[in-house]
Amino acid sequence: MIQILAFYLFAVVTVLSGVLCVTARNPVHSVLWLILAFFNAAGLMVLVGAEFIAMLLIIVYVGAVAVLFLFVVMMLDIDFAELRSGFARYLPLGLGLVALLAGEIIFAGSAWNAGGLQLSRVAPTPDPAGIPNIQALGILIYTRYLYIFEGAGLVLLVALIGAIVLTHRKRGDVRSQNIARQNMRRPEDSTRNMQPGIGQGVEL
Q1: Residue 84 Cα to chain centre, angstroms
Q2: How far apart are CA 49 and CA 181, in angstroms?
Q3: Is residue 114 part of a domain?
Q4: Which pLDDT tens digit goes with each residue over 148-196?
Q5: pTM of the model as a whole
Q6: What total number of domains does the chain contain?
């Protein structure tokens, strides 16, 4: 009984916070509603026994992505009224995309059922007794899905290297610091003794 009440509580709050995230006029409030939705989605994952995914939602999405969104929205000077000005103009296009995606989902579900592969007939993954959820997930990742996991790591590595190359490109209008040249500089290269005459200034 407690599990059912917790499920409906988390589900209702998740749906409401998602709707408020989309409909909120203040972008900072939208990010805060998004954080609330992530927290309640993590609660739903705990109820189904997926503790690892729940921790990922809190640590990665709430602790990194949503907070990053919040800082970006608060630091950038964006005219959101100007961004919303074209909402009515692009509304038919958005509704068309929603209808297209809904049709694809319905078509995929009907094709799944027509092929005799209903969700109820698919054998669930065996859960050995005495193995925690995180350990079972680790066994699957590093055995059956090892190459896929390594491929995802390579994709992230390429993206990281690309971001570093783009941000550390050489610019002609910026003076860079040469530490080796500074260390090799002698005192006589930094100072110069001048003996100006009486009433004369120093030429630089």
Answers
A1: 24
A2: 60
A3: no
A4: 999 999 999 999 898 888 877 666 677 777 888 888 888 777 777 777 7
A5: 0.54
A6: 2
